[in-house]
């Protein structure tokens, strides 16, 4: 592992007309590190995630990414072709709603294999073997490989989406509320799985969530956002156990205890 | 039915006005310059419904001259409604010679077949295309598919072939089989059977594709590489037939199944009617039953459970298949 970061974000802002999406966000992300972005809805965390993943172009600010060859590239100056290539090889994006990230009308195997075919794999047997392997890693039975995701439960769809993203061995994964809309037992299994995969593969990840428990389980570091600004950031345990900003204190004290 | 010149006096030559023809020719030239690329064009209303070849007719109208000889085929046949009426249309509005003979034609407008007779550099093949976008059923957004073509992102096309193998154990796509043109653009060869895909590869004839409803024209210039997509372990292959044409005994041609009666009687005959008729008219060509080596004597290789009495009892007559159809 190097002592250089993977992603450098500096003074990133996104305005929707006169409204603030996110404002003046700066941070570095190191390889293998999971960063949680928390905050209430409307706080700009999804806008930030979309800017970082180049699904949106920011109004100002820069983000640089260290490519596999060690070169630093500025994300918003890359050509669209390069960005899309990065998106389907070195990056992953896990949507809150799996239907946004999956092709619902093609089989689970093809969903996993699509990225391989997109980078030029033309051997059916190999693609299928990889798909089988990945389905088992996300705990989907091999005999579901030819089923369409439409026939899958919400938790299975989310796991399939994760497999589809990880098949090309990305180094950075963006996740937007990966456990949103799942019931607690399914959520727990998914979190367990994600934690295992992130550790095993040494993935760096930026996880957007409003669920502080998810942030605590998955991330090493977190940023708390409010009204488009970062109000507090630091090690996850420190922020959650010893919140300093008044808003973070409010957020932490709002967790329901069972 | 002679052409009545007075009746069409108000029409321009070949129906379309000259400005429209220039516009379409520009689109055709651009298509030829970028093989396989779909060029948008301002498709006109034609005196026929969409789906009947409005795109092909506009392309033909733009390239046809008074000296051209036109052949029109529909599913390989010269005598189906679509083929007959388009031929009659151009006979009337352009007063050109028409033919059913592949070798004699200079322009061949086709729906879903490439003639069996090899084409020459003096001929132009015009395809009628219903859906020009090969990625359409996988990606419904036009903005996205255009971007995918621009960035040469064709992984999705293989997803379709993957699905075929996963479901059927082999690539089950039999028509509109996607091809890569000159190593760059993935193209829908129109709903021709994949049997005809190899004929497109390095064909000496210019191949033009017109989609009237979708307003797209694309082209394959002569001697251009046209490669059918496949997997390394599931290579592209064409349809094979285990029996020859029941009328002309031709092998290695594309056959249509023709139902003869309500009792399961059927026969397989050439889909290319001109090819079939030529072979039967020429006494030196082997007629059916005469090919002892190929068809196993007089007995046709029909399944024993479905005897075809009509086929066995009667010697084939011209047009028999069509009557039964």
From TrEMBL, chain A:
InterPro entries: AAA+_ATPase, ABC_transporter-like_ATP-bd, ABC_transporter-like_CS, P-loop_NTPase, PhnK. Keywords: ATP-binding, Hydrolase, Lyase, Nucleotide-binding. Its EC number is 3.6.3.-. Gene3D superfamilies: P-loop containing nucleotide triphosphate hydrolases. Residues 7-252 form the ABC transporter domain. It comes from the Bacteria. GO terms for molecular function: ATP binding; ATP hydrolysis activity; lyase activity. GO terms for biological process: organic phosphonate catabolic process. The keyword Lyase applies. CDD domains: ABC_NikE_OppD_transporters. Belongs to the ABC transporter superfamily. This is Putative phosphonate transport ATP-binding protein phnK (ABC superfamily, atp_bind)/ C-P lyase component.
């Amino acid at each position: 592992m190097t002592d250089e970061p993977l992603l450098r974000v500096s003074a990133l802002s996104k305005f929707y007309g006169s409204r603030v999406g996110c404002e003046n966000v700066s941070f570095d992300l190191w390889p293998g590190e999971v960063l949680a972005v928390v905050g209430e809805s409307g706080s700009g965390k999804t806008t930030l995630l979309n800017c970082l993943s180049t699904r949106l172009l920011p109004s100002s600010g820069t983000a640089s990414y260290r490519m596999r060859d060690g070169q630093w590239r500025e994300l918003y100056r890359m050509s669209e072709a390069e960005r899309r290539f990065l998106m389907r090889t070195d990056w992953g994006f896990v949507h809150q709603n799996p239907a946004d990230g999956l092709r619902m009308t093609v089989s689970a195997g093809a969903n996993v294999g699509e990225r391989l075919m997109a980078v030029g794999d033309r051997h059916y047997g190999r693609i299928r073997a990889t798909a089988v392997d990945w389905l088992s890693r996300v705990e989907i039975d091999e005999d579901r490989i030819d089923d369409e995701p439409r026939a899958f439960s919400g938790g299975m769809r989310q796991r399939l989406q994760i497999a589809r993203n990880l098949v090309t061995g990305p180094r950075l994964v963006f996740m937007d509320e990966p456990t949103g809309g799942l019931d607690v037992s399914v959520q727990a299994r998914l979190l367990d799985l994600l934690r295992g995969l992130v550790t095993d593969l040494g993935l760096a990840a930026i996880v957007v969530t409003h669920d502080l428990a998810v942030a605590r389980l998955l991330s090493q570091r977190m940023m708390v956002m409010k009204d488009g600004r970062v109000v507090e950031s630091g090690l996850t345990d420190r922020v959650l156990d010893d919140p300093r900003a008044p808003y973070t204190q409010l957020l932490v004290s709002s967790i329901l205890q069972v | 039915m002679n052409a009545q010149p007075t009746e069409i006096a108000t029409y321009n030559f070949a129906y379309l006005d000259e400005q429209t023809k220039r516009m379409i020719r520009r689109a055709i030239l651009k298509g030829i310059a970028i093989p396989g690329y779909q060029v948008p064009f301002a498709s006109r209303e034609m005196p026929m419904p969409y789906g009947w070849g409005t795109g092909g007719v506009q392309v033909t109208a733009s390239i046809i001259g008074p000296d051209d000889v036109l052949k029109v085929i529909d599913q390989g046949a010269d005598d189906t409604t679509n083929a007959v009426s388009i031929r009659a249309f151009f006979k009337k509005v352009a007063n050109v010679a028409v033919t059913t003979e592949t070798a004699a034609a200079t322009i061949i407008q086709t729906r879903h077949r490439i003639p069996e007779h090899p084409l020459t550099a003096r001929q132009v093949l015009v395809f009628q295309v219903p859906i020009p976008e090969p990625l359409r059923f996988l990606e419904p957004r036009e903005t996205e598919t255009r971007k995918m073509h621009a960035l040469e992102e064709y992984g999705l096309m293989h997803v379709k072939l993957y699905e075929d193998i996963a479901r059927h154990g082999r690539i089950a796509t039999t028509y509109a089989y996607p091809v890569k043109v000159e190593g760059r653009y993935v193209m829908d060869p129109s709903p021709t059977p994949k049997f005809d895909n190899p004929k497109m590869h390095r064909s000496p004839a210019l191949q033009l594709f017109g989609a009237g409803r979708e307003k797209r024209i694309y082209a394959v210039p002569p001697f251009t590489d046209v490669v059918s997509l496949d997997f390394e372990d599931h290579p592209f292959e064409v349809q094979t037939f285990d029996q020859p044409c029941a009328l002309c005994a031709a092998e290695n041609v594309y056959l249509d199944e023709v139902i003869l009666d309500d009792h399961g009687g059927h026969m397989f005959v050439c889909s290319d009617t001109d090819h079939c008729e030529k072979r039967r008219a020429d006494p030196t060509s082997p007629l059916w039953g005469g090919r002892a080596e190929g068809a196993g004597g007089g007995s046709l290789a029909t399944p024993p459970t479905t005897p075809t009495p009509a086929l066995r009892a009667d010697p084939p007559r011209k047009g028999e298949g069509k009557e039964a159809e």
